Amino acid sequence: MALHKLLVDDFYDDSYKLIAIHCSIEDYRLAYILNKNLDLKLKRKEEDIDLKYLESSYSLFEWKNETEYVTWNLISNVCKKEETSLYSSGTLFEDTNKVLKTFHLISEYKTVDYFIKISEEMQNINERVILSKLQNVPQIITSYIVDPMKLRSKNHLIF
């Protein structure tokens, strides 16, 4: 009797382009600016990306261009959460302090504020043209292309 073995190392193999954006504006303002400058129709999704059982959540904007078979996503890379921190000072009463914790969706790029993920069936999007348009936006500090295959936490971009 023959033994058949299936190796499933990399089950999810979706080709997409990833652009990192550094800017200090809110996510809804950046979505508006991208819609205006790149001729997109990004809308906020009802559910955010939640990691580690609601420890951190990241905003997600999406537009599915049905005519060109392209899905555009704007993903926040930074989540700031205020938590109460308990510590004992050696007195009868415990002190509580508010601590601001910062989480990152892609931990290798902690200085990046947002990512644009472009998933396409046909390879007809030129990311160099998109980069040149992004660098003409005064609110965006810088933007550059990221190779998603070199990311350790690339599974966080599956949604």
How would you explain this protein's 3D organization?
This is IPExxxVDY family protein. With 159 residues, the protein is mostly beta strands. The protein has helices at 27-38, 127-135, and strands spanning 16-23, 43-44, 49-51, 56-58, 60-65, 70-76, 78-87, 95-104, 114-120, 140-146. The mean pLDDT is 84.
Taken in chain order, the helices and strands follow as EHEEEEEEEEHE
In which range does the helix fraction lie? 10-25%
Q: Name the structural class.
A: mainly beta
Which regions contain 5 or more consecutive residues with pLDDT less than 50?
none
Arrangement of strands in the largest sheet: 2-5-6-9-1-10
Number of strands: 10
- Characterize the biggest β-sheet: 6 strands, antiparallel
How far do the termini sit from each other? 40 Å
| Shape by Cα distribution | globular
Range of strand content: 35-45%
Number of domains: 1
- The averaged pLDDT comes out at 84
Radius of gyration: 20 Å
The number of distinct helices, counting runs of at least 4 residues, comes to 2
Write the layout of secondary structure elements.
Blueprint: E1 16-23, H1 27-38, E2 43-44, E3 49-51, E4 56-58, E5 60-65, E6 70-76, E7 78-87, E8 95-104, E9 114-120, H2 127-135, E10 140-146
Organism: Winogradskyella vincentii
Protein name: IPExxxVDY family protein
Question: Key terms for this structure?
Answer:
159 residues; mainly beta; six-stranded antiparallel β-sheet; two-stranded antiparallel ribbon; 2 helices; 10 strands; 40% strand; IPExxxVDY_fam; IPExxxVDY family protein
Summarize this, please?
This protein is mainly beta.
